[in-house]
Amino acid sequence: MDRRKFTKILGISSFFLGTGCRRPELSHINKVKQDYSTTYENILEYKTNVIFGNFPVGIKVRTFEDIPFHISKDEFNTFNYGVVPRSILSSLYNLYDKNRMKSPIVNGKEVDLPFAIESLFNEIAKTITNKKKVAFFLPLFNSPFIQSLTNEIEQYSDSIKFIALPVFDYFSSQFNANKTVFNKEFYALYDISEAKIIINFGRDFLEHDPLFPFYTSRYATNGDKILITFEDNFSLTGANSTIRFPIQFDSVESFALAILKNVILNNSKREFADTFNLVFNNPPLPEIPESLIQLLKNNLKNCSFICNDFHSASLQIITFLLNLFSTENLYGISLSRFCFFDLQNYRSNQDKFLSLINEVDRYEQFIFLGYNPYFSLNSTLIDLIQNHPGAKISTFSLYKNALTELSTITIPLQHYLEYWLDYENYDEKICSQQPVILPLIKDSISLPDFMFRLRKFLTKSSDDNRYDVFLLNYYRKFYSEKNEFQKNIQNGYFYSKSTDRKKQIVIKSSEFLSILKFIRQGFMKKTKSEVQLRIIPNQDTYAGEYSNNIYLYELPTTLDGIVWDTPLFLSKSLAKQKGIENEELVQITFSKNKNLILPCIVKENISGNSAYIIYRNNYYLQKNFRKNIFELDLTVVGNFNNFFVQNITINRVGKNYEIARLQRNSSKIDMEKFGIYRKNQPQMYPNKIQPKENKWTMIIDTHKCIGCNLCILACQLENNIPVLGKEQIIKQRDLFWISVSILKMQNNKTKFIPIMCQHCDYAPCESVCPVGATSHSPDGVNEMTYSRCIGSRFCMANCPYSVRKFNFVSAEVAHLNFDPRMINPFVTLRSRGITEKCTFCIHRINFERGKSKLQGFSEFEVTTACQEICPVSAISFGQRKKIIPDDNNTEELFVLLPEFNTIPNVFYKLKRNE
Amino acid sequence: MNKMLRKTIIVIAILLTIAGLISGIYTFIYGLESWGINTKVIWGVAIVNFIFWIGNSHSGTLISAILYLFRQNWRHPIHRIAETMTIISIVIAGLFPLVHLGRPWFFYWMLPITNQTNLWANFKSPLIWDLVAILSYIVLSLLFWILGIVPDIKKIRIRNKKFQSFASRFWTGSLKNWKEYIWAYNIFAGILTFVVISVHSIVSLDFSVTILPLWHSTMLPIYFVVGAIYSGLALVLLVSSFISKLNSTSVNIPSTSRINLSKLILSFCFLMMYFYFLEFFFAYYGQDNNTIKILISRFQVNYLSISIIMVIQIFALPLLFSFQKIRENVSFQIFISMNIVIGMWLERYLLIIPILGKDLITDEIIEYTPAVVDYLLTFGSIGFFVLAFYLISRIVPLVPQSKD
Q1: What is the distance between the alpha carbons of residues B298 and B357, in angstroms, rounded to a whole number?
Q2: What is the pLDDT of residue A494?
Q3: What's the pTM value of the predicted model, to 2 decimals?
Q4: CA B137 to CA B134: how far, in whole Å?
Q5: C-alpha dihedral sign at A754, A759, A762, A765
């Protein structure tokens, strides 16, 4: 080698050395400096209300550049106090749904809206001239504006009837009982917020309940409550109970009566006791544990009683009496325990419906304004319209369904975020529903708009106003100040009538006898039925058509982790008797030719020969989504009273059926997996530890958590986690960032453990990533750089908590029915082949940080999506110094898997001996 | 008959290779969706194959380098077979981690190449060590293989005149040639002895650096090396005895080599047994709940049959080599060594899948079933191995014809 060659090689190699061997840096991912000022201006927040069941639920809608992208809770509404049902939380999906009806259909042809409305009006006019009648069916809710329009139209013409029916009739049992016993028409909402002991007769008020927002918000107040539940199924409420009695559905009343007996004998005047013994001298009542009797005796004033609305009239009256006796004033009702809801509206509509059945031949037009008998399992109405010769059906609906197939005129309805309306709350506050976006579907119409146009057509008024201007003028007369409208829109409610809510119900000892007799008569007849099947309407169904939502189908049930399917739950003894095994197809025979085949799940904790279905209308879902799931058409059952079916048989079909489950969401954790949080953790590399005060920390209070799974859904919506479909879940490829497991406990009460990324100080995932895609931020957040990830999945293998998820397909492709408007603009959509996990809502942290900088503050607070939505405020999040101010007082704080010494920043509040 | 058999094998190998290639391309295009892995068992058959082939590549170096240093002359007839296997195996092994990446087109981000944002590979990650180790092993073993062919360079069946004239000038077989050759061979053998031990130790660090129970163990590197050599020796025996059974090469492999290989396999079988039971002993002695549960789970419903087959294949059957008549029987050699190779694959499967499948929080075990693509990739790799071996044997004489 000559000199020149040598220098050449030397030069080249030193060049490579110089460029290649720079000091390796790991945490050098430059933070992009975002100009937040424009972002903040483009984010607007609206308060609005939406009907859930029969009451308005208050929500906040966030829009970015005038496109709504996020729904969260708002605490102004006295009905829900910030508890948002999951169907409402995810209802943006329905707004942007591609499967929504796009144009009106008249006689099988797509037409535009004015033509469809005109042809409908012509039909109505023709019917009126023929001296036939028109029936309008709409969902039952108290809207003064709709009410006034209804009255006006009905006064104008005798041949038009508006019949408002509840989605599921949970009023009737209590309503009829109250009417007979007290001669008053009301529905009592028992306020449990101040109670310390709640005795619950079969009501699943924490999950599948029309009044879920009402009861859950009240359950969460005033600290620890003792919950005692008598139930046949194993519900979330039962799981949350301190004491749970698994009993048959038809023996709930007798247990309630036994409790009533004890209360009367121990705590009331003698004359009541004598009357009680007079009426119930014979029937042996079931024995109640001594401890419960003592508890009632000593703390009766702190007790509240609630019962299942779908149960018999007797139970309703017993519960009412128990609440009455537990109040301070025996002869009147303390208002803290009761909220009366006037049901005049309900009564009048029921009367109208009965009269319609009686003179059905006189009706020609049946117009469904958002009410669907197939959805509500109203088989009376289904039979009526199917067997009525010459019935003309018109439908207003968000989606195509069984009813629209029968109708001649079909008109798309607007989403609740697209139009104005008002609702009257149970406490007579008027809540407003305001639009946050212009109607996305041009040829759609809202319910009040249609009613307004109908009124205009019938009265032939020359009023040129639009309905919303009319609505505003309608309310203007109530305003005292000029800009009160603005103020009320900001508050979310219009005005409060200053009516006297103090309704007194007094029971005299002479009346008591007749009440007890009513109870005795109304007892459920005990049949020796082989199987007692109960149909429990899913919480989601109360949101009406908004339950047609794939997010809700993919949300796992807390106790079983089931997604997509709607199985039959069977008690163990019944399954043993019939030889039925778990995840097998069974056939339920209701009567001749009325069969239903569905998969079953055999479960412990269900009493005797009970079985139940948590019903949701999955035949309502679009075909492409339900190809893998079992169709559950309960309309075959026919009429059933109070969703309780007896005299049926259950048999094996002999086929297995795979039900998709999310493994983590139903599995149990040992207490030994938790270790106490030590302030001075032994540290191998003391210099590397993050400054303590700065760290973002999350504390999950397991005493509070009720396992509603709303955090999973909120996280999914916030962080653009796709809905994958049943196939992917069966393969265990879910992408949820939070899972809710159950803590194994010695006593019966169930505790729920939400598990997300623990943001460890010594994160095992960080050291093994070959490209440094996951790193630690200075404020203690375990960050994930999506664009740097190459998908070696080493981080997932090395995470002892298994909280990292892998995108097998890119989010846009994997997401069923993907719509870009649905996504949160502040969170990246993940592409194929990369890992993801909980980020502690880092976009929110950055957002707030930028905002506080703009405003000149150094400190700021952040709420994560899961924390924001939690109905019981079980999650708290913040910087370490704020959230654990006193490091010595941390005996209740536990960390998961302490043996790995990862030093997590998520803490669980627990008690040691659980 | 033999010709017929040979043709069938080659046709099957070609078909398998094509199937494996197609499934590899399919994975590249459509992502890992087609694999059997799930959120919990996130490394599947691909990683099992990776370790399996890396392991197989070890015997080549052992036979040619380590046994050479110990002057074991019986290694001479089989050393080129072993080295050829090494090269093919290491190439196959290197492909699997690439295919297994979520975004394989960015694999070069693991290399220490600077870019404008100063992003750098994470040298703490064992995957980087892996990459370096495997790359250096590929280069070194390729060079060593070429070096081993040098004395037979004239016998290489390349009909290129330039190559032939180059070969005749390059290697004359003179004493000077041989002196230089042996000198180079000694040095290479010395280097490779260290490399071969380190490569599989580093591969094992992929697992022992993690904090998962059972993997997080200092025993793993030596266990891996022993296992690798064990399966590699079995593969060499399988190939060499298969060749002598077919009698297709002009030069026979002397039975002494194969008998000695069998003896070596027997001793490594005992070593494996020791480490296998040491694993259980550590779990018992350490009383770590998680480790015990995972070890027990190997003998529970999902993995019970695999475990039993594995134990028979790698611990019971090789003991038959204690008998001289079986050691000398070619059919038995083929049968047992094939069982060992399969058993060692299952051993790797049991090392990886049950641990990943166990949820450390809920103690549940998530099942894993390989998908069609997984199977195709696995059998495709076997097909490619056979095909590549055959093609190389057409060019290079597998049994050295010159004596050193």
Answers
A1: 11
A2: 63
A3: 0.90
A4: 5
A5: positive
Whole-angstrom Cα distance, residue A656 to residue A599? 8
Q: Quote the ipTM score.
A: 0.91
Q: Cα(B162)–Cα(B148) distance, rounded to whole angstroms?
A: 21
Task: Quote the CA–CA distance of A246 and A232 in Å, as a whole number.
Answer: 5
Phi-psi domain of B213 (left: phi exceeds 0; alpha: psi -120 through 50; beta: other): beta
What span, in angstroms and rounded, lies between the C-alpha atoms of B248 and A825? 68
Cβ separation A667–B109 shorter than 8 A: no
Contacts of A667 in chain B (CB under 8 A): 359, 362, 364
Average pLDDT, 10 consecutive residues per value, chain B (404 residues): 80 93 90 89 91 87 82 81 89 90 88 72 88 90 87 78 80 84 88 86 89 88 90 89 72 77 91 91 87 86 88 90 86 90 92 89 88 92 92 83 65
Bridge partners of A391, per DSSP, are none
Q: In A, which residues are within 8 Å of B104 by CB distance?
A: 790-791
Nearest CA among A760, A739, A751 for reference residue A670: A751
- In the block, residue with structure tokens 């770590």: B288
**A790 vs B124: CB contact, 8 Å cut-off?**
no
Contacts within 8 Å (CB) and 24+ apart, A759-762: A759/A696, A759/A698, A759/A838, A759/A840, A759/A904, A759/A905, A759/A906, A760/A902, A760/A903, A760/A904, A760/A905, A761/A689, A761/A690, A761/A695, A761/A902, A761/A903, A761/A904, A761/A905, A762/A684, A762/A901, A762/A902, A762/A903
Cα Rg of chain B, angstroms: 22
Model pLDDT, residue B372: 92
Q: Which residues fall within 8 angstroms of residue B226, CB to CB, at 6 or more apart?
A: B268, B271, B272, B275
Strands A774-776, A782-784: pairing kind: antiparallel
Non-local (6+) Cβ contacts of A454 within 8 A are A121, A124, A149, A153
Q: Are A876 and A657 in contact (CB under 8 A)?
A: no
> Is B128 in CB contact (< 8 Å) with chain A?
yes
Mean pLDDT by 10 residues, chain A (914 residues): 85 75 47 58 86 88 88 84 90 89 90 90 88 88 84 86 86 84 80 85 89 88 82 88 86 86 76 77 78 84 86 87 71 52 75 86 88 85 84 89 87 91 80 87 89 86 78 74 71 60 64 81 73 87 86 90 89 88 87 84 86 82 77 73 79 88 86 78 58 80 89 92 89 91 80 91 89 87 90 91 91 86 88 91 88 82 91 89 73 85 88 68
Total count of residues recorded for chain A: 914
State both tokens at A397.
């609906």
| Closest Cα in chain B, distance from residue A558 (Å) | 15
DSSP B312: I
Name every residue whose Cβ is closer than 8 Å to that of residue A417 and which is 6 or more positions away in sequence: A48, A61, A68, A91, A92, A95, A435, A436, A437
Of residues A453, A680, A664, A416, the one with CA closest to residue A561: A664
Q: Does A671 touch chain B (CB under 8 A)?
A: no
Question: Which residues, including other chains, have CB under 8 Å from residue B211's CB and lie 6 or more apart?
Answer: A764, A798, A800, A900, A902
Residue A888's φ and ψ, nearest 5 degrees, are -80, -25
Provide the 3-class DSSP secondary structure of residue A257: helix
HSE-up of A831 (CA within 13 Å, CB side)? 10
Contacting residues of A for B359, CB less than 8 Å apart: 663-664, 667, 802
Report CB contact under 8 Å: A20, B112: yes
| Chain A / chain B CB contacts < 8 angstroms | 160
B125 interfaces chain A, CB cutoff of 8 Å: yes
Q: Answer whether B124 touches A (CB < 8 Å).
A: yes
CA pair distance A167, A541, nearest whole angstrom: 8
Structure tokens at A255: 């247990």
Touching check for A125 and chain B: CB below 8 Å?
no
Question: What is the strand order of the sheet A751-755 is part of?
Answer: A668-669, A739-743, A751-755
